[in-house]
Give the backbone structure.
Amino acid sequence: MKIVVIGGTGLIGSKLVNKLREHGHEAIAASPNSGVNTLTGEGLAEVLKGAS
């Protein structure tokens, strides 16, 4: 399952992303570092394609 974690590069989000990956999920860390800006929406639609 593809799961997008907003803030996935932060303290808690990065741990969540790692756990999801350990359990076989395709976890995407969405943050400004990965080209996703939640304030403007830039990059958000692209990363959410196919996510649950």
Residues 2-48 form one domain.
